[in-house]
Amino acid sequence: MDDDGLYSRLKAYEGRPAAVSGTGRDPVNAPMIRHWCEAMGDRNPAYTGPGAIAPPTMLQAWTMGGLGGHPGRARPYEELLALLDEAGCTAVVATDCEQEYLRPLRPGDEVTFDTVIESVSERKTTKLGAGYFITTRTDVRAGPDLAGTHRFRILKYAPARGRTAPRERRPRPVVNRDNAGFWEGVREHRLLLQRCTACAGLRFPWLPGCHACGCPEWDTVEAAGEGTVFSYVVLHHPPFPAFEPPYAIGLIELAEGVRVVSNVVGVPYDKVRIGMPVRLEFRRYDDELTLPVFRGVTV
C-alpha cells in the first residue's frame, strides 16, 4: 500500500472512539491527592482540609488503568494501531500532552471519561524513523459535569534502518541563567541548593525566586550528600543507546529537607526500596558530562 492509500485509511479513524464510558478505578480521594502532593513537593493549602480540591494536573491520574492495562479501549483504536503495525510502524513513543481544566475535582467525585481519536497526521520523518502522530482527546467528567480535557499524542513509527549507531552519549542538560550556578557546582563535585535570603528556605530545583515568600534574592548551601529514597520508579522501556534499562530513578529526600530526582546506583534496581539510605556521588559519563547520582547504602 502506498503512503497516500495508507493515510486515507488512517484518516478514516478520526472522530471514532478510543475508549467509551470509561470509569475511574477509584473515586477522587484524599490519600492519592496527598501522595501526589508529597511527590511533587506541592504544599498548596487548596489541596488539604475539609474543602480540598485535587491538583488540576492530576486529571489524567483518575482515568489511568494501572498495570493491568486499558480494559476499556475501543475496537477502532486497536484497529488503528494494528493497521500501523502492518505498515511497519511497530514502534511507539509518547511525544506530548495538553490539558484544559473546567471544573475542580474534589474527594468523593466519581470520574467517567470518553476518549476519541482526534487526529492522525500525515507521514512524518523523524530521527527515530518515519511514522504518524496520533492525537487522542479524553473528556473527563465528574457526574454530569465536564471537569477537563486531556489530549495525548504518540508517534507510531517504523524504526530507521541503516543508520550508524549513535555514540553512547547522554542527553546534555539545559543550562540557562537560572540554573547555571548549579551546574558549575556539579563540575566542582558540589551539590548546591538555593537558600532564600529573606526566609532562609531551601529549594531545589533552582528557581529565579523563592516559592514560599517570593523573594528574588538568594545564596547557596552545599548539601552534605546524605539522604533517603522518598519514592522511585524502575524504567524498563524504551531502550536508548546511552542508557541500560532496567534502572531505578529515585526521588531522593536530602538531609537538608529538599528532594532531588536522580539515578539510584550501587544496588540492583529491584532491591531499591522507599526509605533506603543513599549517599551522593558524582559520576563522569564522558569528557563533557558529570552528573550527581545516589549510591544505595545497604544495612
Task: Indicate the topology.
Layout: H1 3-11, E1 17-23, H2 30-40, H3 75-86, E2 91-101, E3 111-120, E4 124-125, E5 129-142, E6 145-159, H4 180-187, E7 192-196, E8 202-203, E9 218-222, E10 226-235, E11 247-254, E12 259-265, E13 277-284, E14 290-296
Parallel strand pairs: 12-14
Antiparallel strand pairs: 1-3, 2-6, 3-5, 4-5, 5-6, 7-8, 7-9, 10-11, 10-13, 11-12, 13-14
The H/E string reads HEHHEEEEEHEEEEEEEE
Radius of gyration: 23 Å
What's the number of domains?
2
Helix content: 10-25%
Q: Using the coordinates above, name the CATH class of the largest domain.
A: Alpha Beta
Question: According to CATH, what is the topology of the largest domain?
Answer: Thiol Ester Dehydrase, Chain A
Helical stretch count? 4
How does the major sheet shape up?
A: 6 strands, antiparallel
The class by helix and strand makeup works out as mainly beta
The overall average pLDDT, rounded, is 91
Query: Roughly how many Å apart are the termini?
Result: 60 Å
Percent of residues in beta strands?
35-45%
- Write down how many β-strands occur, each being a DSSP E stretch of 2 or more residues: 14
Low-confidence stretches: none
In CATH, the architecture of the largest domain is Roll
CATH superfamily of the largest domain: Hotdog Thioesterase
- The general outline is globular
